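I keep forgetting this: the sequence line spells out the residues, with the fold written below as integer tokens. I include a record here:
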Amino acid sequence: MKSTQFAGAAFRQFARQQWSNASRSFSSPAIRRILTGTAGGGSCLLSLSLFGSSSTGSYEVPKRDQVPNLDLIIKETDALYNNYLIDNAYAILRKHVSGQCTELLWRLARVICEKSKLTKDKKEKEALMMEALAIVEKALKHEGPEGSFGAHKWYAIILDYVGEIEGTKSRIKRSYDVKEHLEKALEINGSDATTWHILGVWHFTFADMPYYTRLAAKAIFGTPPSSTYEDALKHFEKAEFIQPNFYSTNTFYLAETYDRMGKSDLALEYYKRAFLLPVVSADDSQIHTKAYEKLKKLGVKIEELVK
């Protein structure tokens, strides 16, 4: 898809961890063609590899004397990112790391986040994600009075990935800020499908939290975040309404949510859709495999789907 990334981010990884825990005792970002799961790797709350939407949303345009050819740089690097040419986008954006242009800084943080998700070296992954966090924090520091949709969105995504690195306790603690900045991003630009998706993952994750995990969180935080599958569904459906079939992960989450709500026919339909969507990004590959496993358990003959 294009535009990533909770992503993705956003909590998809966290959600996948919860799904895994549930299977043992008791699912995560670019977007169509990202979220690395990110986010989190594959499933940061937001995990958003979030190449979900080709649209980057409205943005504040800094004074032209600050960054020559700003519009051209934005257009070119967004196109590279949306086609998952991360290194190419990075080569252009890294030149602006010492500047104060919010719109270039959050885009630089975005591609560094993707670079983190792509590397298999744990230390390098962590170092890159912390670098991305520092840069997106700088982007927020210099946003204008109109606010920056992308800065808030990617701050939320990257913050969740950092929480994932730091552990479950940190991730839950940071989840309040994650939700706040996602909602702020939607206040600025309510037509971005990936942000609706990521916030949907946030709601799904806490609705899906096992009872024993919720008790542990309550002991630590007093009043941990909570939500419902109905809230999650509203966000996933909104994302799909804005941009149909934009992100295989959103399709899969629709299936998961319908499944939790006891709507088995709809769940089956969306597992099939998720399986059949194109595989372009790391997120797509993970979702393709997860949908395949779900369909096999449900007795679906995969060969009939791919005729």
